[in-house]
Amino acid sequence: KHHASFSELVFALYETDKLPEGVTKASLPSVHIPDHYKEEEKDLVMHCSETMKKELFYWKHFAFHLPDSQFVSCFEPVTDEDPQMIVDLFQAPANVNELTELAVDENGERRRLSPQQLAQVRETGRFSVPSQVFHGKEYEWELTSLLASGNQRHRKIFYSGIAGALSMLEKLPRCIISTTPISLYSSFVQIPRALRDLAALVIGIPERTLWKPLPTLLDQKRSQYVFKQFKNEIQDWQNELSKAGKLNLALPADHGIISTVIDGETKTLDIRLWNPQILSEVQQIVDNINHSVFQLWTRERHSVIQDILRGAEDISEKDLEQRIVTECQEEFNRRFLTALDDNRALDRFPGIKVLLRAKVMVYSIISTSHRNVVAEILAMRQEIEREVKQQHSIRSLDPTWFSEKVQSLLKKALDMENATMEEKRLEMTYERSIREFEYLLRDSEVQQDKELKQKLEEQFYLIQRDMAWKKNKKLKQTKWIQNNMLVPARMFIWSSRIFFHRNQPVSQIDGQYRRVTTEKFSVSSACWFWRWRIVAVRTYAWFKNTASYCRYAICESPSSYKALFYRQPFSPRPSIDSKTGAEVRSRNVYSTLCSRIMALWNSVRQSRAEFEAQPDTGFLGKGVSRVFNIFWNYAIKMGLGLPLVVGLHVPRVLVNIAVHVLLGVANFVTAPLATLLRYALNILFHDLDNAGVYSFRFVPLFSIIVGRLALGCVGQILLSILTVIGIIPGVASLIFSITTAVSLIGYSYDWLMYHLIVKRRGRVPHTDSFTARCISGPGIHNNHYLQINSSEALAVVRLMLERQELQIYKERTQALIDLPSNVFHNFTNRVFGLFGLSGGDNELIIKTTKKYRKLLDRYVNQRVKELPKTNNLPQSNVRLQIEDLEQVMRQSKEMVTDFLSQRIFADLYLSEPQLISDYWQTWDVSEGDWDALTRKLLSHLFSENFLVALTEEDSSVRLQIDHSARVKGFIEMIKKERIRDDLKSERVSYSKVAPSVLNKVLNQTRFSLDLLTFGFYQYTPLAQPTVIDPKVG
Predict the structure, then answer these.
(1) Which of 202, 212, 869, 980 could join 85 via S-S bond, C-beta 3.0 to 4.6 A?
(2) CA–CA distance, 646 with 564 (Å, rounded to integer)
(3) Number of C-beta neighbours around residue 665 at 10 A
(4) How many angstroms from the chain centroid is the CA of residue 571?
(5) pTM for the predicted model, two decimal places
(6) Which of the four pLDDT bands, split at 50, 70 and 90, describes residue 984?
(7) CB 792, CB 870: distance < 8 Å
(8) What phi and psi, each to the nearest 5 degrees, are found at residue 950?
(9) What is the pLDDT, as a whole number, of residue 504?
(10) Calpha distance 925→919 (Å, rounded)
């Protein structure tokens, strides 16, 4: 049985009676039974007591045997003094801080500045003092500017003044012919622009825009061009894909491999990755492969870098960085391809593995070509900068002139013409990639693998088509799109209601018939005089709306003339049957004057007839009640109702007709006036239509005439003339005069202070002060690495292993101490749990458990105090040279293997597979991979930089370490590679070195593969066959 924890492990030891040495158990004491218990109760208690004595126990003796330590020697007594920390053991020798010794001469007197140092002070305001301890190094001191600034600084100020004056004078032609805001050319150019804005405001000039963003339209055209020869096959593929999606059908595994005949030769193209479903699955698998490969790569990349460094002795840092990145990428791609071939999840997509292999090779070629092109352009730019600085030492001090000069020479050298730097870089990358493709296709291994060659030819075909598009078609298509795929920038729409049903057409919308009750009028901004067209169309729309409404009110409304002269009620417009489209007469009717009078008379007559038809059974009899009936119908209803109907209906109709006749007549004047007023408000106060190419919305006419024409054109012309005649020459003269005066005054001041103070009183200082400070020298700055000896690194590794062992020993011993308590709880829960009771705790077991826990904590804490500390070790700054690192790696691996196998896995884990497996998983390495585990431990102890060796070019400073008795003996043992117990003391050393370029490139070795990009130039996407429109493709 496998045990997953120490609790299970120690319980198994207890069951097999294999307790550690010095650990003895004892049964729980017998229970005292009170006399008042009954006999049955006594027998039950005695039975339980005997059973518990057999099952339960406590620790009678518990001896602690802490693991042996190479740092706590049994031959040297451990004192009560505080343990020394390893970082505090790095003691510098007395001669490291040599500034005091350099400041005095052989006679013990303060050292005066030498003639060479005085010349340095005169020239630069600084002087250097050679180091006696660190060969080839110097301490550089800088004097305060109150004592010396240096002739170099004054010359630089003078030359900067000349460069500034020349730069200002150079702006004279720019103020005449350049496109800068303050120039005569820009001033005159503003006149047609202002007139254009004025025309756009007053009459309206054509305004059109693309119906989609230009990049989107170019991508569509690009895709159409790249896949033009496969257009029909791609359309069939899209149709089948769409049909399968609608019907939820499964497509064949090879669906998406299309072929056609091009120039008499059959060309095949695999476009399955543009199927979203396949792409999602394959991309997920590729990402998982990439992740697993990268996890292994992080553990082994240091050894790869070390192999590269062995053959890079005589190489610059820049070339070394490029070489490391390139070779690491190739190695990573090789591992990725190996893992890709071993993956079985892609087997259900036939040919996808070969396609992915081809894509990885394409990615590698293109990314390498792009990186080389970028490096080449950068080197070319740096060379041009050096040449410009040599040829124009003064003019190059002007950053604006220098940048423009370098850019123009770089464009000339690259033959860029009108292309941008990004476009030229992309073109050069394409050309180099195609050459590399041609070399690759002629490779013997590729020639033998027919399927791989076919996939590479497919990728080569796509790259060629894409390059042809960018080189030959993109510019033409851009111009064509900008000229032929334009739509009006704005559309102005007005609605006019159709009041008469005779004029309302019937249309069928969504299978139902409906009347069209509105008529629309529109004006687009794509035509000339569209603002005047707006005035005309708006006038017509407003006039028609008002006229139609007046006509409707007079002829068809409930208060129209029909309500006054028609005898019968008239119906409004008929409705439309939504299913047949036939007219259906409306049930609603409008009453007329005659119909209202006839209704009133019919009501009176019906009331009289109903009265006479009723039998005479009432209280008064019909002779009397007839008088009341006649009075109500003729006097009240007719006498009052008839005048009321005539008095209300007739005036309402007459007023309605009169008002709408007047409104209709006035409409001939109000509609044009309203639109003209709206037009005037737009150009004078605020453009409510919010249209036009000009940038003024408030008081636009005033802004254009005054702001653009008067101030922007005339005022700018005057300002440009004034700038050319007076401002620029005056500023240039002022700059030259000021800088010349400053340099002369500074030079004179330095000459005076040099002869009065520096030359007579100058001495070599040994500390920073107000007058001088040390700005560089060995160990001055903190940008260095600590190069400890291999024996010290191994001591730290051993120390970490012993700490791990001590922690594991503590956990296992705690589990063993808690074993009686766990057994007690298991027993009570098993027995009393059946009755719903809990067993509680045993005082003796609790007492002994607490006792031995305290002892364990005390012994472990005492051992921790006795071990050296590394809390303040500058981990990220520790590095070794190649020989020392190889020795540390070899000996560390042997130490880790022996230590973990014997002292932890065998002695503490008792070779338990589950515990050993958990340990390997804790460090995220494969079980048995001792090399990877050693690298993980070293990276954890120091940093990832520790596994990258220092180069020979790094400068170093030798220092010493004095070790304590607990450390020095172990270091001596490691040095002589003899394991022994008679520890002795020794002295070792370490170095401070300068930063290495490897620290910058260490994290540049992670690569990913996006299946639908080129993998370079900001991840340029591939042309997609799925965006081809069958109608225009």
Answers:
(1) 869
(2) 10
(3) 11
(4) 70
(5) 0.62
(6) very low
(7) no
(8) -75, 150
(9) 74
(10) 9
Helix boundaries (H) for 205-275? 214-226, 231-247
Give 670-702 pLDDT, tens digit per residue.
Answer: 999 999 998 898 888 888 776 544 556 678 888
What is the C-alpha separation between 439 and 418, in angstroms, rounded? 31
Gap between the Cα atoms of 980 and 916, Å rounded: 28
Helix (H) or strand (E) holding 61: strand 57-62
| pLDDT, averaged across the chain | 78
| Tokens describing residue 584 | 């259906």
What is the amino acid identity at position 847? K
Of 199 and 875, more confident: 199
DSSP 338-399: HHHHH-STTTTSTTHHHHHHHHHHHHHHHHHHHHHHHHHHHHHHHHHHHHHHHH-TTGGGSH
Across 49-58, 119-128, 947-956, the highest mean pLDDT is recorded for 119-128
For the chain, percent helix, then strand, then coil, each to nearest 5? 60, 10, 30
- From CA 376, how far away is CA 432, in angstroms rounded? 12
Query: Which pLDDT belongs to residue 417?
Result: 67
Q: Rounded distance, CA 545 to CA 673, Å?
A: 15
Element (H, E) at 54: helix 39-55
pLDDT in tens, 633-668: 888 888 888 888 888 888 988 999 999 999 989 989
Cβ pair 126, 708 in contact under 8 A: no
Q: What is the per-residue pLDDT for 907?
A: 86
Q: At what angle do helices 622-630 and 593-613 cross, to 10 degrees?
A: 170
Residue 835 is predicted with a pLDDT of 67
| Phi, psi dihedral angles at 813 (to 5 degrees) | -65, -40
**Helices within 774-923 (DSSP H only):** 790-817, 819-832, 843-866, 882-898, 913-922
Distance CA 182, CA 719 (A): 7
Q: What is the mean pLDDT of residues 561-586?
A: 78
Token reading at 636 = 């009240």
Q: Classify residue 510 as left (phi > 0), alpha (psi -120 to 50) or beta.
A: left
What distance in Å separates the CA atoms of residue 286 and residue 280, rounded to the nearest whole number?
A: 10
Cα-Cα end-to-end distance for the chain? 69
Q: How much is the average pLDDT of 242-249?
A: 79
% of the chain exceeding 90 in pLDDT: 6
Q: Give the H/E segment covering residue 494.
A: strand 491-497
- The whole-angstrom separation of Cα 544 and Cα 665 is 12
Phi, psi of 97 (to 5 degrees): -85, 80
Please tell me the predicted confidence (pLDDT) of residue 526: 86
Q: Read off the tokens for 710.
A: 């008067």
Q: Is 9 exposed, middle or buried (0-12, 13-18, 19+ CB in 10 A)?
A: buried
DSSP secondary-structure letter at 539?
Answer: H
Q: For residue range 394-436, what is the model confidence (pLDDT) as tens digits? A: 778 778 888 888 888 888 888 776 677 877 888 888 888 888 8
Report DSSP state, residue 133: S
Q: Which residues contact 1011 (CB under 8 A, 6 or more apart)?
A: 273, 279, 282, 283, 286, 356, 359
Residues 685 and 567: beta-carbon distance below 8 Å: no
- State which amino acid sits at residue 731: V
Contact 831, 839 (CB under 8 A): yes
Listed by start position, the domains of the chain span 6-77+784-942+955-993, 154-208+697-751, 526-684
**Radius of gyration (Cα) for the chain, nearest Å?**
50
Q: Average pLDDT of 872-900?
A: 79
CB 922 within 8 A of CB 10: no
The 3-state DSSP class for residue 482 equals helix
DSSP secondary structure letters along 684-711? HTB-TT--SSSS--BSHHHIIIIIIIII
Residue 183 CA, chain-centre distance (Å), reads 42
Annotate 711-759 with three-state secondary structure: HHHHHHHHHHHHHHHHHHHHHHHHHHHHHHHHHHHHHHHHHHHHHHHHH
